[in-house]
Structure formats: C-alpha cells, structure tokens
Amino acid sequence: MKLIIENLNKKYDKNEVLKDINFTFEEGKIYGLIGRNGAGKTTLFNSINEDIDIDSGKFFLEDEYGKNTLNIKDIGYVISTPTVPEFLTGKEFLSFFLEINKDKIKDMKTINEYFDMVQISKEEQDKLLKEYSHGMKNKMQMLINIISSPKIILLDEPLTSLDVVVQEDMKKLLKSIKKDHIIIFSTHILELALDLCDEIVILNNKNLELIKKKNLNTKKYKDKIIDSLRDEEHV
Amino acid sequence: MFNVLRMSLKIDINYAINSFIYTLKKAPIFKDLFVDDSLYKSHKAKSIIRVLAIILSSFRIIFYKCIYISILYIISHYLNSKNTVNTFIHIYVLLTILGMFVNNKLLSPSTKKYFSIVLFNMDAKKFFKSDLFIEIIPSFIVNFITISILINVKIALLLSLFAFLSRIIGEAFNIWYYKKYKYLVISNLVLYWTLLFIVLGLCCLPFINIYFTYKYLLLLVLLFIPLMLISYYYINKVNDYKLIYKKLNTLNTVIDSDSRKGYDRQNIVEVKNKDKYINNKKIKGKKGYDLFNTIFFERHKEILLRSAKNFSLIIFVVIIGSIFFIKGNEKIAKGINYAILNRLSWAVIIMYFINRGSILTQAMFYNCDHSMLTFNFYREPKVILNLFKKRLITIIKVNLMPAIVMSIGVVVLLYLSGGSTNIINYITIPIFILSLSVFFSVHYLVIYYLLQPYNKYMKIKSLTYTLVLSLTYIFSYSLTKLVMSSLIFSIIGVLSTIAYVLLSLLVVYRFAPITFKIR
Asked: How far is CA A120 from CA A112, A146, B325, in A?
C-alpha cells in the first residue's frame, strides 16, 4: 500500500507554502516529518485530510487492487490541539465511539482494555473530558484513531504533551501497528523522530525531501538533517 | 439510519445531562454537595435527569413552534382582520419558502457535527438524514396540531404537509448549492438580503387584500410532491456528505467555540486593520504602563469609538426628530415634558444598552490580559491597580461621548417642550445621565476585575458573573416601570452612583490583586 502525492501546490494569498510536491509514502513505515516552524507541516496534513482546499494536486492510495483517489475514510488525523466533546465523560466518549463503529472495528476489546492501553484510571474515566488535561485529551484522541485503524494515520505533534511513561507506551503501540498502516508523524523533536521513525522526511523549501541514512551513524545523520533544514536560510 | 439517529440522540441527551450536572456543581449552593465526579457515572441520577431532559427538550420544540405559529396568526389578524385565515396561509407559505433557502440548520457548522462526523466517525449520510427526520417529523406533528386548533384540520394538514415537503426540497437545494458554489446560500449576503427583502415585502400584500389563497396552496402542495421525491432521490444520491460536513465544520470553526457565539465574540473584539498603525504623536513621551494602555486603546479605537460615535449620532437624530415633533404637535410636547420630568428611569435602560463596557472588557481579556496574565510581573498588585485606574479613566471618557449628547439633548427637549418650574431640574437631570454613564463604565470594569470570568478560550466560566450581568439587566429593566419625580429620582440616582462607585473601587483595590487571574 502506498500513499502517492502528485503535484501538490498550496498558497495562502501570495505566500506559497507547498510547491509542486511529488512524494510516495509506503506501508509498514513510520515517517518522521520534520520542518521548521511555519514550514507547512500542518498545511500538508490538512491538505491530505481535505480540511483545506488545495490549489492543485492529487492524492492516491495504491494497493494490490490498483491506484485509486484517496478517500478521507482511509485517513485518521490526530491534531496537535486535541478537540473532544467536553461534556462527555471519558468512558461515555469511548463507549459511544465503540458503539457507533462496532461494525468497522476488528478484534474489538473491552472498554477497560482500551483504557488500560492509554493508562487512564477508573476514576478518570468518569470525569468530564472538559476536566481532562491536554495530555489526557490527546491520549483519548490517539486511542480512538488507533482503534478505528485507518489505512493512513497522520499525527501532528502528538506525543509532546504526554508524560514519559505514556510516550513510551504510545511509541510501542505505533510500532506495533505500523505493519498495516502508513504512519506520518510530524514533530519538532529530532530525538523523538530518530527514535520512533523508520524514515525522516523534511519539509524544506516548500517541498518534501527524504533524508537517507545510508551508512551514517546517529550523530552524523542528525547533523545531516539539521544541515538540510538550515539550507532554507540561504535559499 | 435509525441506529445513527438513536446514537445521535443518546449523545445529545448525555451531553445535556452532563452540562446540567456540571452547572449544578458550579452553582453557589450545590457545589459543596457534589464534590466528586460520582454523579456523572450514577446511572440512577442520570436516568432521572434523562427523563427530565427529554421532557424539557420536547417541550421546548413544541413551545417554540406554538409561539411561532401563534405570532404569525396574530400578525395575520392585524394585517387583515377580515381575512385572517387567508392572510395566515399567505404569510406561512411565504416564510416557509424563505426558510427553504435560508434555514441551514442541517448544514450550519456546529461542534456536534464536528464530533459526530469527524471524531465519532458516524456515517455522514445517515447522520444527515436522521437530522432531517428529527427536524421535520416533530415539526409536522406540532404544526398540524397547532394550526388545527387555530384554524381547522384541512388547512392544518395542507400547511404542515407543505412545510414538510419544502423542508426536504430546501435541504436538497442547499446541498446542491453548496456542492456547486462551495458556500451556503446564507453566506451569500446579497442573495440572502434580497430574498429576505422580497419575501417580507410579499408578506405585506394581504394588507391591500392580495393573498395566496387555499386553492393556490393546494396546487403548490401538488407541485411540491414530485419535487420532494426528486429532492429525496438527490439527497440519497449524494455520496460525499462526510466531505461536505468536514469542509463546513473545520477545526477552526469548532475549536475553542462551543457555539458560533464564541467565534463571533472573537471577531467582534479583533483588532481592526485600520488600527494596526498608531500615530506616533499619540504615544510620544509615554512610558511603561501608560504607553501600554495607550497602545491598547489606540489599537481598539475602531471598536470603541465607532460605536460611541454611532450611538451619539443616533441620539442626536432622535433628539432633532423629537424637536420637530414638539414644534408640530402640542400633545407630543406635553408627553415628552411629562416623560422627562416623571419617567427619567428610562434613561437607565438606555444607558445600559449604549454602554460598551462589556465588549471592552472582552477585548481587554482576549487581546491583552489573556496572555499578559501568564507573566508574573503583570500580576503584581501595583501593576493591576495602576492599569485598572488608567483603563477606568479611558472607558469613562469613551462612554461619556453619547452621554453628553444625551444630557444636552434632554435639557433642550425639556426646555422646548414646556420647561420645568423647578430650575434645579436643568442641572440634576444632565448630571444624573452623566453619572449613569460613569456608573456602567465602573460597573463592567469592576466586575471584570473582581470576577475575571473568561477562560483562555473567551468562554465565560463564572456563573456569578453571568448572574451579575443578568441582575444588571433586570435591575435596569425593572426601573422602566417606575414613575417618580425626576428631581428626586436623579438626586437619588446620583447619590447612589457615587456610593456604588466609591464602594466598588474600595473593593477592587482590596481584592482585585487576588481575583484578577486566568481561570
């Protein structure tokens, strides 16, 4: 399975953010998307997820049955500002979600098992989402995206607000599901990307560029990524 | 579809129940009773509240529909008392047609749609259809019963059937329009106002005995039946509801705004382009918080001064108009003279409406304090009080502009309408109006500093603040009924304003350093 981006262009007024992007993401890999502040990472995600209108370009999903235009049903998007229905408790939220999607979820677990996955205690389950911390809301958002298991998972800075223990668990979880998914993970934290991701893609000069590791050790690879990002200043 | 409908209702009801429990927990008396979150999971308590919620919400639908139909009926009676029924049919049909195009409830952005479609991943088409049925079926029943009672069963059946059909046609039209133009009819303001203007104009026709009669209604219903079938076919044929909902309910429209109100509020207080540039002369020689405050008010000049100027102009026009009336008609002159001398209490509600205090405090919070309060240096008592003082003076100045126009106007009107035997009235009445303006300016700023009600998303979090605002309105409104010599009323008014201002300033100086913080 492949996510293919063809000739993607996006401008905000006169400001060109994404310019003629052609890129292919493959199944079974976690891609770390790195870019400087304002480089357009969220714009890229929003474009793929059809949250914004693009100026031109196409997205395709290619699998053993052929190449088809990407359908938003195949995308799960975890946004950096978690937005959840605040006047439902965590438990209600999850049980509604499971009930609504029961036909689509494979190997459904119990509510408690799901809560255990993200380590939300019994007491916290009965609290209103309104009273959840940013990190906890994020966990809920991640959880439902993992449960619904879409083919493509876009994660916009999702781990930054989680505590270290949950961060580790989430990393394990993402690694365990990557086999059947295309996971694109945007972050500012290079160490996190290097630790979790199989490939590093930088959004630089309005375009995507895969940074190949080849035979470099971590230190040299890191320098190479930073150098590539720095390049932008001289363009 | 029924599954989606059931889930959608279930979520709605749970949402309502939890909001109710949450409000209860924040209310002054109850908050000590429910300290933990056990109530949210208590099935017994929830099932009781669930029944109440269902009863209340059904009652609300019935109530609004009944009120709508009754008001139309009353208007019809006034428009043409000899032909009330035909007039009613006429207006009802026209407004229903208008509603077909401009009632976008099903597609308008809302948090619920965002959560249901984007987060819960509900089947968007089924969601749309269930939303449609939940809208039209109860409507049909209530319309039918209400109109049956008011007119007769035959007309009731035809009219409610007409509303039923046109709703489906209207929704299909709205989807078609959105798919074609990428925006809703209601967003095209020229089209919207033109439609509104035409329909409201046509609604007045019964006044000259032209109306849409029963026969035409029957024809229209017959015409609408096949149209509805085509529309329903179209609704079923469209397959990209998820995309339509997603485009209309983007995160930006949903985020930090539970309702459109929150979003609109932010727009109201947004710094206008015109004010982004500040004339250097205005800030020359200013330093520290003095400069800070000046910059703040210069950046909000458009928001503040525009409304103050507009109100001043409106008051001016009303006064000039009144002068003409006074000159032309002695009866009106006497009425105005009596009103000024005995019903000065009206000035309170007028000043209540023209005071910009509440919008100003919102702007202060959203564009300034919201971020500044996260810095400790900004929360030092000295800084808070210093800035409070500067802000108070500026707010008073801004609000005094329309107040001055009004006080001069009232004095002129008093003189021209026959004057007063007691010359002191010429002094106390304008002073009272000015003091009212000061009162409201102080009032809004004081409650803002004492209760700081907003959270970082501009939502009002303090129930006490809402209560105080409502009480302010109730108090201002209740005074309108009062008949009292304006001399006594204004003296009492001025004295109590002075007392209130002094007292509240004392309280602010004592407590604001503690209460003024982010919630």
From this structure: 9, 16, 72
Contacts of residue A96 in chain B, CB cutoff 8 Å? 7, 10-11, 14, 120
Chain A nearest C-alpha distance from B461 (Å): 12
Of A16-30, B178-192, B274-288, which range is least confident?
A: B274-288
For chain B, say whether A101 makes contact (Cβ under 8 Å): yes
Segments in B256-300 forming alpha helices (H): 260-268, 280-283, 288-299
Smallest CA–CA distance, residue A127 to chain B, in Å, is 6
State whether the Cα torsion B485-B487-B490-B496 is positive or negative: negative
- Residue whose C-alpha is closest to residue A50's, from A10, A98, A110, A19: A10
A51: phi then psi, degrees, rounded to nearest 5: -80, -25
Locate B224 and state its tokens: 């609408």
* Domain A2-84+152-170+181-234 grouped into CATH 3.40.50.300: yes
Alpha-carbon gap, residue B268 to B384, rounded angstroms: 25
Most distant pair of Cα atoms in chain B: their distance: 79
- Helix B43-79 to helix B2-26 angle (10° resolution) is 100
**Chain B partners within 8 Å of A100 (Cβ):** 4, 7, 120-122
To the question of pTM greater than 0.95 for the whole model, the response is no
Give the pLDDT confidence of A105-146 residue by residue, as tens digits: 888 899 999 998 888 888 889 888 888 888 888 888 888 888
Which one-letter DSSP state was computed for residue B345?
Answer: T
Q: Convert the pLDDT of each residue in A153-174 to its tens digit.
A: 999 888 877 788 878 888 888 8
pLDDT, residue B39, reads 65
Q: How many CB pairs under 8 A join A and B?
A: 77
